Amino acid sequence: MTSTTIQITTLNQSTPPDRGWRLFLRSIRARAYPRIVGQTREKLWIFFETFLPFMATVGYVFVYRAIQAPEDYVGFVVIGGAMTAFWLNVIWMMASQLYWEKSSGNLPLYIIAPNSLMSILLGMAVGGLLATLLRAGAIIILGTLLFNIQFQVTGFLELSAVFTLTMAALYGLGMMLASIFLLFGREAWQIAEALREPVYFVSGFYFPVRALGFPVALAASVLPMTLGLDAMRQLSFSNGPLLGFLTVNLEIGVLAGLTVLFGIGAKFALEVVERKAIEEGTLTDRNR
After folding, report:
1. Which of 24, 27, 61, 272 could be bridged to 115 by S-S, CB 3.0 to 4.6 A?
2. How does the average pLDDT of the chain come out, rounded?
3. Residue 46 has pLDDT above 90, yes or no
């Protein structure tokens, strides 16, 4: 046995391959890193991805001020404008991700890798969430300074819980949609584009969702952003509870349920995709 063989054998014995949760967590970190670093390489993207959503928010602010609506409506719009950044991140950087990876030829590598697709998508979610937080924070800061918004937070702990659960449920939905979009194939980006404005409307991004009426608002509650926005507004403004759809505690409970539901749904859908790719070998074919 040569010295090179002895060294390789010793190295393999001293560094066993990662498995289970350790592999899962390291995969998340590995996929989050390029998302975080990549955001700093093109400074112009940061400007346009922050400035353009803020311009849409400003338009609604002027509408509310023109009709002399209560000032809390201006705050509602700014929060809604900030949250659009998260929805766009979910649709374009999560739900469509597997389809883009298939088009670029990377999907086969993800399928044959020893880690799961869920860990890969979670890593992308973590990296994208940190970058999106900066954009959302910039929109809120700019809106607060320009329009003199007065926040009256009644519960920081509840507000943190609402935001965390909203993000968890939203990115769980994004992972589940990633499998569905992949199965649809070339129509994935068309579906993503078609969903943008309807979600803005039924989720009440720029107005209290209760204005849609109880049946429509209840149906829209399947989207985490609907109840998340409503609860955050109730906890952040004096008129928030008067314009809220459901009580904050009930909305927190529903968001927790949606987090579990979409998490299980995402795991099941991604397992179906992996099994289909391995057994049939068609999902990784760019011509399909």
Report:
1. 27
2. 80
3. no
Name which of 147, 29, 171 is nearest 90 in CA terms.
Answer: 171
Residue ranges per domain, the chain?
20-280
| Orientation angle between helical segments 72-90 and 156-184, nearest 10 degrees | 40
Contact 93, 246 (CB under 8 A): no
Separation between Cα atoms, residue 136 and residue 150, nearest integer Å: 18
Q: What is the dihedral of CA 181, 134, 139, 141, to 10 degrees?
A: 160
Contacts of 239 (CB under 8 A, 6+ apart): 70, 72
CA–CA gap between residue 91 and residue 8 (Å, rounded):
45
Q: What's the pTM? A: 0.80
36 band by pLDDT with thresholds 50, 70 and 90: confident
